[in-house]
């Protein structure tokens, strides 16, 4: 019984030493850097919505296209890393969405997130 336990302990030690080496097959000499994992101040968020009747809302407030352009330009200058969360009704034409994205990118805001609802009756699975 004792030799069997010794063999098991040796195998356990071997697996404990080799398991961390098997996690990555690429042998890389990565540079070292002092970086924070979580930023001290999270980036600003702009919530923009396009409704089915063609109106634009900034942070739940109705806004014209010209006023929106001024607001995003000002936001881009204050916080260029701001994230835009875009909510669009499904009946809004793609052309209108593309125009809005162009306006945001022209202002210098490139972090655009599309907000969707979790799957439901109207959700269609992606086709491969």
What would you note in describing this structure?
This protein has 128 residues and is α/β, with parallel strands linked by helices. The chain has a domain at 45-114: Nucleotidyltransferase, domain 5 (2-Layer Sandwich). Helix content is 35%, strand content 17%. The chain contains 3 helices and 5 strands, in the order αβββαβαβ. The chain has helices at 2-18, 65-78, 94-107; strands at 45-50, 56-58, 61-63, 83-88, 111-114. Strands 3-2-1-4-5 form a 5-stranded mixed beta sheet. A hairpin with a 5-residue loop joins strand 1 (45-50) and strand 2. The termini are far apart. The model has no long low-confidence stretch (mean pLDDT 78).
Quick rundown:
The protein has 128 residues and is α/β, with parallel strands linked by helices. It is 35% helix and 17% strand.
Secondary-structure blueprint of this entry?
Layout (H helix, E strand, L loop, with lengths): L1 H17 L26 E6 L5 E3 L2 E3 L1 H14 L4 E6 L5 H14 L3 E4 L14
Parallel strand pairs: 1-4, 4-5
Antiparallel strand pairs: 1-2, 2-3
């Amino acid at each position: 019984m004792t030799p069997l336990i010794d063999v098991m302990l040796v195998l356990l030690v071997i697996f404990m030493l080799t398991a961390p080496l098997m996690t990555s097959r690429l042998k890389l000499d990565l540079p070292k850097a002092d970086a924070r994992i979580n930023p001290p101040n999270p980036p600003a968020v702009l919530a923009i919505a396009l409704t089915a009747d063609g109106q634009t809302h900034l942070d739940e407030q109705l806004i014209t296209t010209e006023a929106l352009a001024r607001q995003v330009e000002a936001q881009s200058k204050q916080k260029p890393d701001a994230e835009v969360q875009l909510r669009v009704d499904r009946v809004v034409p793609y052309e209108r969405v593309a125009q809005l994205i162009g306006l945001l990118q022209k202002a210098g805001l490139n972090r655009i997130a599309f907000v969707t609802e979790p799957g439901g009756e109207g959700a269609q699975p992606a086709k491969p």
